[in-house]
Records
---
Amino acid sequence: MSVLRFFLLLPALALAAPDAAQMQRGAQLYAEKCALCHQINGAGVPPIYPPLAGSDWMLADRARSIRVLCEGLEGAITVKGQSYVNVMPAQVLDDAQAAAVLTFATNSWGNAAAPFTADEVRGVRARTRFKTYEALVKAASFQPLPVPPAGWRVREVAQLPEHCVRLASRGDGATVYALAQKGSVYFLDPVSSALQPLIRAVDYLGEKPRDLTAVGMAQARDGRLYFVTNERITEGVEFVTNEVVIWRTSAEADGHPLQPRPWFTVRYPWGVGPYNHAVNCLGFGPDGMLYANSGSRTDGGEAGHDPKFFSGGETDITACIWRLDPRTEKPQIEVIARGIRNAWSFAWDGDGQLFTVSNGPDANSGEEMDAIVPGRHYGFPFQFSDWPVRPGSPYAHTPAPPPGIEFTLPVRNLGPAAGGSAEKPLATFDAHSSPAGMIWCGDDWPAPLRRTFLIGRFGNLLGPPAAPEDVGFDVLSAKMERAADGTWTARTSTVLAPLGRPIDILRPGPGRAFILEYTRPTNFREKLGWLPGRIIELSAAAR
């Protein structure tokens, strides 16, 4: 609703003064739900939380104000001439409660507006992603913690202030950091058991709205944080472009790394359709080098037909694993392995062998786990899982492989979990289960997890017929076995299930795993809304 239209409606709306009982209910709810950020006097905390007192933004559009309360808000807004870039989650209020809070906020601290009604809220809510109050309640509910294996325990560590995608620490019991999808960095405060803001995205990205996501983070031994952003560039370029920036902070000062600066920047053509998997996972190898996954820009090598997008398939720096030297100020990409569609996570075992876990295509091949040997090619986009190259390709558009190229097949899963069995091994996990975070559990871990990988699976994003049942939403253990011919198999078991789309796993110290749940629902079939999840800890019960 425009400001002009709002004022034209005032004669009809403003005749009814706010009901005293509704204002009182609104004041109580405001104190409980809103005052922490916007302050009890509505002044906000500029430039982080906007004021509600005298808020031209809030008063200008009633429907928008309702939507923000019922659905949440992220991105840049301007209030009283100042820009704010932050995230506000949906508030779990029923229609009458939401109307009371809005009536209180728009009629306090010098504000004046017609009262809100439950019917008015209900009508706007029906056009939000949650549709009804009941749907919001269901989406907002944290599920009970999963039952751990015998001899282990699980506990909630912290709830997320916004959607977070990565955890990082030095792994020696030092501070744990969380990277938010929009670029802010939080640290886990051991006193409050909460994630506290450390680096705001606006501090290094500026206030101008940007089509950007942050998706990878690692911490070096000297305490510096490295994290990566991918930004969609549409102006001044021949094709829509992905700009990759790896940011590096200062070394630790006063206990925390600060002041992120661009350390490495590169561009390549944005992906075809939704398949720009970006540069995401970062990790330091036993050699001290920084490794990065550069995901594919296609689903299966397709060209695409939109003239605004590059139609040449993969590039020299996509669908591969990079290595960069953190000792230099101007690092160069060294591609150590190709043919990896999207290794959202990777880790080294106790012998220094690098393994990756990758998301597969929309076709129903298995999700791959690969043992990486520098210089080898792992198939994408010519081969999926261990399927035949041709004519077994699921796509007519899959290109023919270059002559003379040899592909290294994925790890074969012998089960009993994640789709494999000794009688019918699978390379490697259920289709569409989206393997995500991954850590190595060394000799300092108790049995049965000692010398296994823990692998979280984000869960399917496709429904039937591609994924007739929900898959993923769990954490697996994979015990690796290498045959005489150099091939690998994994004996895979379920450790924790169900989980709210576990997107990353961190080893904060011996015998402990922090699991980052991206959101709260533990299945796909109910299609609940997405609200920020939590961090949970798996540890040995004897600790």
---
Amino acid sequence: MSNQSNDLNALRHSAAHLLAHAVSEIYPTTLLTIGPATPEGFFYDMLPEKNFKEEDLPLITARMQEIVTKNYPLEHTQIPKETARKLFAKNPFKLELIEQIPGDTVGLATQGDFYDLCRGGHIASTGLLGHFKLQSISGSYWRADRNNQPLQRISGVVFFTQQELEAYEKHQLELHLYDHRRLGKQLDLFSFHDEGVGFPFFHPKGKTVINVLTAYMRKLQEKNDYQEISTPTMLSDELWRKSGHYEFYHDKMYFSVIDEKSYAIKPMNCPGSILVYKTRPRSYRELPLKLSEYGHCHRHELSGVLHGLMRVRAFTQDDAHIYCAPEQLEHEILTIITMVFKMLSKFDLHDIRFAISTRPEKYMGSDILWENATKALTDALEKSNAQYTVKAGEGAFYGPKIEVVIQDSMGRSWQCGTIQVDFFQPQNFDLSYVTAQGTKQRPVIIHQAIFGSLERFFAIILEHYKGNLPFWLAPVQIKILTVTDAQKPYATQLYHTLKKTGVRVELDSSSDPLSGQIKTAQQDRIPWMLIIGKKEAESQTVTVRYHDGKQEPAVLLENLYKKIQESSL
């Protein structure tokens, strides 16, 4: 960890003590538990006599600022456990922590007359903590266990300078303005309803975007010899037990009984694809066999983690299962990595990182199979000159995988696609192919999802582009505006011509002045506006106005059609 990271952690940890100090002065009966630094800021979990409310935050903030002004030195010492037990005799949470700390002494942090149990790692004094902001009050549990005492958590952020704090607040405002849930409502793309919590409803414009995403991926897959299939949404319990999903995903699956037989709605597409592979004997000449599927999956996520399109209970995966010979494995992974780079560049996403998730605690198969699978992924990444990290123990139960991590225009990282090697399902389902020598051999499966989830990827790019989707992807690509009604016949003729060629176009039929029509089109985030006045109607041209305000006057229709073709999918 860099010195800067260490300093920031010390600042955040010290800010947590500052918060606890202020609360203990204002609400002396509050029991303090723990207050760590986090990757985003800091928090402190507490048990107040009376629950905190949002309106309490300004009062706590003011007291924290008073303590900052007093500039108490932050000191840390080791004290005997017996002394610590006396200091915290009225706090059962601290007493529990004291007993679990190894050795005969514990750390004690002090500032002024405030003290707290602590392992250390602070800045010099409270005077350096003035650039903070308390953000929220939320519920938590002692030791993050729902069976333990419910607590309240106060969270905040802190920075070394006021400029950093102001930059953070500006960024937070930007995140709020361009939150995909907010944009989805503004642009009439999708909605959520109490009648189906966690299940997104796509409106015509939103469905258009989903269709274009699917069309783009189909085009990319067709160029790489994928064949598309479709498998049922509901399949027998027996299948999910055989695949292992029942054991590992049971709590997140939906079930139904039909004719006294138990069925499950699929949480993923793999078993259905495997059944297609098994419909007849396969030859080495067919391999690699690449079966793609845009499968609609369901998972019972807890209501507390649902978040717009980012975390839903029903989603569509751009799934593919590649059945290949072991010697083809590395080449196929390299091909997928190339597709990943090509796809992400289409969305102006160029900061791309990879991570290899290795064997978890619960897994299927032998250690040697895991080692071979992990090596194939590692070798492919190294040959593609891709930078990667290793996430130890974070693989799926049936194989290691590559995770694709991107950074958007607002500096946030997102995990999107996955590439997973699977030696185990071929064994579970006794899959085979006939080799050139006439013997049977087991294929390897590569599970691939480049978007990951269409819904989640839609949310990511909607925020990445801040609602201004590129021409090829926008639900409405062009809006035709007229200066007066006299130009309506020419505008209508142009509208029908563009419509016939597949352009997603609208004609403004309102009686608004041109400035009002432009404002509406800008609010709808329409990429191109075609403005037609008297001069354009007479010369059979258009003025092209882009969403950013730039204009191209007197564009001939022939050049317009060429420009549209160049900007389309």
---
Amino acid sequence: MSSPKFDSHNQSDRRGHMQTLLTLGQYLWMEGRSDLKVRVVAAALLIICAEVASVYSPYIMKYIVDSMTGDVNPVIVMPVGLIIAFGAARVLTQSFSELRDAVFAKVGQNAIRQVALKTFRHLHQLSLRFHLERQTGGLNRVIERGTKSIDFLLRFMLFNIVPTLLKILFVSGILLVEYGWQLSLITLGTLIIFISFTFSVTEWRLRFRRTMNEKDSEANTKAIDSLINFETVKYFGNEGHEARRFDSALASYETAAVKSNTTLAMLNIGQGLVISAGLVAVMLITANGVVEGKYTVGDFVAIHSFIMLLMMPLNFLGFVYREVKQSLVDMEKMFELLTISREVADMPGARPLEPQGGEVVFHHVNFGYESNRQILHDVSFAVPPGKTTAIVGPSGAGKSTISRILFRFYDVDGGYVTIDGQKINEVTQDSLRAAIGIVPQDTVLFNDTIRYNIGYGRPGASDAEIEEAARLASIDKFISELPEGYNTLVGERGLKLSGGEKQRVAIARTILKQPLILLFDEATSALDSRTEKEIQTSLAEVSRNRTTLIIAHRLSTVVEADEIIVLEAGRIVERGRHQELLAMEGQYAAMWSRQQEAASYQEKLEQVMD
């Protein structure tokens, strides 16, 4: 089952955008957060107050002009009160706007935080299949753009679009009541033509913005992928190849960006023509009214101010529409992540695992990553409490699949798995994974300190507990010799440490977790024979008296196991203890013979090298 693909061209715009706004509204008007609701209401009232003060300013200017162009000498009788009132109206407009921003800031930032946190949590709850199919760079870009778009949408939609709509309502009403239907009709007609032109041209320009976003994500994905695989790039001397791949995406971005900027100039010119035409028409009618004595000079100034009050924010309408629409698309993509169902979910009413001795049982398990590609065929075995069972076999036999099933990264297609008699699909995943500790083949560390990486086994553990775990993993001496000790940074994916050092950190981390069941998944396969023997000693110490499942390719690491299971093509072909399997002279014995010959050759080679 493959995960849904994100396609910027597949939008179902209206339904999707409306659903996106409704989803965002839930985070603005959160149940149980009366403090946030009060802020939303207060911000709405402040928006209205700011617009009332804004549209009242032209009225005051009208009376100022009329008082100064009348029969009274303006030098003797200065309209001081009106001028002060005009200044007060401007101050109130700005003050209400700033208070609105301050009051709403907590609501907006809380919404961004809650959406980002919910998305982050949800991504960690999705299946391993989803993350294996998803490109980290592109996914990160979706989340980054989605959270940024919330901030943009709130600022421009609530503090630009809504105030502009209120201005249109107030000004149109004033012109209709005070100055007649002609001016109101011309103003509304100009606005309709302006908005229609802006929306149609901006919609046409969105194709270039979509291309820019796609190429931006592509370039970002390629850059991250290349930098994560820095060593591989160096090994093959492919710096130039990586630069060309990156530049190819940048070149496509450049082409789309140039087209976007060129068409923006066309949009701005067209908007200017529409605004100027409407403004000239209104001014001609008003000037004629002044000449005929129908209007005063103050009316002329006031009407001009009203029109400019409308047109100034509309100058940004193309930008705002484009960005708001893109923000909705970006948010929609991020909210789509939240709609992806969890392939592996807790059953309704699932209870925590109740550990007893740690018995693990696979009962007639069938599994395939795809419906047409079965990996495990009728696999059955049991690991008694405190015992060690090893699973061996060639690459592709299905060994690591067993570990993923035990952790319930995937649900089985047939059969079931139990721990202490409890089916793992009937208990909570948190309690299941808390009971199992793993030392994987490829230990990936966080780009943080050694202390943090060991402490990750049990967040909140004390320094003494972390250091004791390091001692039991036989890495404490190595750490003490480092200049910064436990505060040494391990680098991206732990690349500053050797393979053996990373494995010891993984062992220490597992020791700190104190699990009931231990799983060693090819834990030493990537190490040299000397380091392997040292790590094996640590593993033996850790697994004493614990239920242990060892997945291994090197048979020398499992000779002491209580039972060895041989897998081939997803089927159990042999099982028994080491000596019993050798006596069978079957698959296991053949593997043992080949590996012994290889080990003998390696030892001779190492002696020569020494």
---
Amino acid sequence: MIEACMKINGYNIKVYSLNTVVVGTGAAGFNAADRLFGFGQEDIAIVTEDINGGTSRNAGSDKQTYYKLTLSGGEADSVGELAKTLFAGQCVDGDIALCEAALSVQCFMKLVELGVPFPRNRFGEYAGYKTDHDPRTRATSAGPYTSKLMTECLERSVNQKHIRIFDKLKVIKILTGNGKVLGLLCINLDKPEDRDERYIAFNCKNIIYATGGPAGIYADSVFPLGHCGSTGIAFEAGVMGRNLTEWQYGISSIKPRWNVSGTYMQVLPRFVSTDQHGNGGREFLFDFFHDKGEMLSKVFLKGYQWPFDVSKVNKGSSIIDILVYMETCIKGRRVFLDFRNNPGLEEIDYSTLSNEAEEYLKKADAEFGTPIQRLLRMNAPAVSFYKDKGVDLSREPLEIAVCAQHNNGGLAIDKWWQTNIKGFFAAGEVSGSHGVYRPGGTALNESQVGSTRAAQYITGHCKGNPMDVETFIEQAGSLIACALDMGDKALSNCDNVEDVQNDAAKRMSQVGAAIRNIESIMDAAQKTRYELDNFENIVKISSAENLYKVYRLHDILLCQYVYLMAMVDYINNGGKSRGSALYTDKEGACPNNLPGMFKFRLDNGSKADLIQEAVLKDGKCEFSWRKVREIPKCDDFFENVWRSYRENGNIY
């Protein structure tokens, strides 16, 4: 790594020149750096705005899942079978599915060796369980904080290698030219008021982008507070998006942000709606359900079927999500889970539940008492979690909403996790490796596989030094000047950045989350486009200390615009309700007792083998559709593979 300096727009800017920069310090980012070093590429550094932030370190669930090849028992499994399961998620490229399957054991065992306490039996088998969309028992877990444990173990490995980490640097511009990476521009969060320290640039051949999902575009989000993602500036730099319409949404608590899946629902809590001041509490589920046993059975199923699934609205548990959405996003009320009292404020007749719910609660010895008593019996750590966060479920209700939980789409990648921009790789949730559905826990596997594949390709195919600093300034100088100019124009004696961001996020949650309407989406996209076109006149900040918020808002608006327009394009191409999104349709059918605005038609699978791709050019979105790449049929005859590998290492 070489340090130099340049002067642009009156700013003295440090420039670090090196082979590869990894952006992000979650499970994907740390693994990318660790793998690069291990494979022999040591001219690297990590850039992060907060080493202790991000989803990997700060998110989880009652039993956070890691998905991989079966490693116990006598159940038949193979790389090919796992690839087929991933490919069956719709809109998934087969070569990427095969890579995720093939490297799942290698990446899982590395985590084991680093100290992640995945459970195994006395014979050394890593026992598994069945997760959603999983035909085997491939899932495993190290508890509620699986991704946190992964991140901590990977961080220790990185620190042992003395890989340099630039903390408190927020990437505000991805520098590209002629379809390849030039570098990055960052704002220094530690010294924003010092004009000679405010901005730092990186001149590099490669970037592994591991910034997580674009959480900041939604107000109702289970992503950790402060995690916003940085997908918008990638679109601005010319990086292609893929499957942007495909998200997962689910019922989550707001303070703290946490998935209320699994046992939280299986203990049958009371759903209460209030006004904005917490008054006028009422059990709104009874407005829809006239059979209490059916209502409680649907609530129980939410534990298994936590993500909102439009195919489970009519006969499954996802009707619960819609009823919560109606209270919060349409009526403007607040919704709480009350674990202190039974629904209807009376004893539960367990014989009225579905056979599945009754048998489960009976086996758990939990057919008694109140929800909190049942929760303590079935999963006491679930109660302790909230108590540690300042919420005592035995004394107060828990506020919830239908929240964005995971983006299945993202930046378009090839089988080496490289995007359409040469030298720019995307790993973790920011990459679009998944489709409409995915087995629970595949995100953690992809974070390790994707970062490993990117590191392999860089060390085998993208070695060498970056361009000299003079050439870097010549090619990237105007892009840097433009970003500096944005910051200068935003500085004023007033401050409206957070108000604009909050309004934009609320708008996105209302029209671009689980419930989507073409007219509302187009109206929101038009408003977002107006704010982008007039950004320098609208957005103001009163101090350089908070200047990073201006760049964050610009990234969020860019991202929102592309995602909203992707939804418009999907509908205009005949797309119907699928996955975690209900697209309203006047010609469709409406679940019983719901307002006509919820009429919809289910997708018939006609687009299951098509991938929507998006590019932002000159402020406008361009979309294309293509067939998925099928799972490759490889020549697995060992002698042929061995000879080819020895002679030319043609894994690239």
